[in-house]
Amino acid sequence: MKILGISAHYHDAAAALVVDGVPVAAVQEERLSRRKNDAAFPLAAIEWCLDRAGIEPEALDAVVFYERPMLKFERILTCALRAFPRSWRMFPKAMKNALGEKVWMRGIISSRLGVPASKVLFTEHHQSHAAAAFLTAPTRSAAILTSDGVGEWATMSVGRGERRADGTTSIALLREIRFPHSLGMLYSTFTAYLGFKVNEDEYKVMGLAGYGRPTFADAVRKTIRRTPDGAFALDLDYFEFHTTADRSYSSRFIDLFGPPRNPYEPIDLATEEGRRFADIAASVQLVLEETLLDVARALHAETRLPDLCLGGGVALNGVANARLLAESGFERVFVPPAPGDAGCAVGAALYADRIHFRNADRDVPDHPFWGPSVSGDELARIAAEDKQFVDELDERTLIELTADDLMSGRIVGWMEGALELGPRALGHRSILAAPHDAAMRDRLNCEIKYREQFRPFAPVVPVELAERYFEMPPGGTRLARFMSGVFPVRAEWRDKLQAVTHVDGTARVQALERDMAPRLYALLEEYGRRSGIAVLLNTSLNLAGEPIVNRAVEGYSTFLRCGIDVLVAERTRVLKRGSLLVKRKEDLA
Ligand SMILES: [Fe+2]
Question: pTM of the entire structure?
Answer without folding.
Answer: 0.94
